[in-house]
User: What shape does this take?
Amino acid sequence: MFENLSERLSGVFDRLTKQGALSEDDVKTALREVRVALLEADVSLPVARDFVKAVQDQATGQAVTKSITPGQQVVKIVHDALINVLKGEGEPGALKVDNPPAPILMVGLQGGGKTTTTAKLAKRLTEKDGKRVLMASLDVNRPAAMEQLAILGNQIGVDTLPIVKGEDPVAIAKRAKTQAGLGGYDVYMLDTAGRLSIDEELMQQVEAVRDVATPRETLLVVDGLTGQDAVHTAENFDERIGISGVVLTRMDGDGRGGAALSMRAVTGKPIKFVGLGEKMDALETFEPERIAGRILGMGDIVALVEKAQETIQAEQAERMMKRMAKGQFNMNDLKMQLEQMIQMGGMQGMMGMMPGMGKMAKQVENAGLDDKVLKQQIALIQSMTKKERANPQLLQASRKKRIARGAGMEVSDLNKLMKMHRQMSDMMKKMGKMGKGGMLKQAMK
Ligand code: GDP
Assistant: This one.
């Protein structure tokens, strides 16, 4: 069973008590289990294969963090890789609804949850984003579907386009557009007809509607429980209609979430929302972390590994502190420190972890140093030769120019960096002389 991936992996790694780097064999063994788990979670075979291969290259040789097993470490690596695949560009859940009235085209198969999702989304746009929304049903073959949208609209307080008997979908789309313009709506949503399966007539109809509406967003609504079928549906709709995003419904069910991964890998289109029930507010922004956790079914391990990694970072900071206390602080140290600062949530987070650095954290804050500046400083250090990094005072004016240019910066930026390094290194020396007690005293002042 899928739930047992964690047991499966710990079984594999029970025999391995050694710590250190992950060997190729360790990783291979673990990833075989991961692959099976992915398939059981409904990830398609080629996607699972590619994914495992990418993770394998990434994991081999990675240091195993103390206090967790290699198996757990692999799971964390897999988890992070899953999030990477699942993440689309831009803000999750963001929709292009500027330039009113912005058309949103809702497409999908019958029974996938299209009408329900249209209403849920209209409610969200109204309540969360303060938009005025008009909904229109284009499902002329199923009067009940048109009625259903009107009922939902009533329930959530969102206007629907009045039903006119005998009108075809393109005519309804045009009328919705006109009405949205005249009525001062920000958004109009077109709930297209679904079929039980993809057929030519359906596609032609949706295409014709798309051409008159020129939607800002074309959202495909698919049932997340249908796994691979959902992926095929997405592929088909994307090829024919061109979709801008996906809404996965019935994620409140016991689906494994694998469809999400395949869908993303196959279509490259972002999953924007997930449906989590029949109620009108059961629609949430898609969160890659949650789906990744669901696919792996082991959030606890991921949290454990994250915690262990935090400990390691604290250990590293302590080691660096010791070196600094001895007065050893060159540009490489500074670079490492800058990199860690970025990793650990900025300079202040880092300084806060180092004894005696409380004061400096304040200075850093006042100087307005943020990640961008940190990255620029790293680039400057990277443009230096090994010798120059060890001994930055050797830098002559001509080299300074080259280095600054190499990093796409000005000489004045380099001078600032060098000044910072000098100040830090002086401070380190002073603190080193004071010894541990002295440092603490200094920190308490
Ligand atoms: P359409 O044919 O694609 O328009 O599908 P409907 O919107 O009519 O939905 C079909 C059924 O699925 C309805 O009973 C909905 O209440 C239900 N449904 C839609 N979305 C979800 C969801 O996210 N979770 C659950 N559990 N049911 C849903």
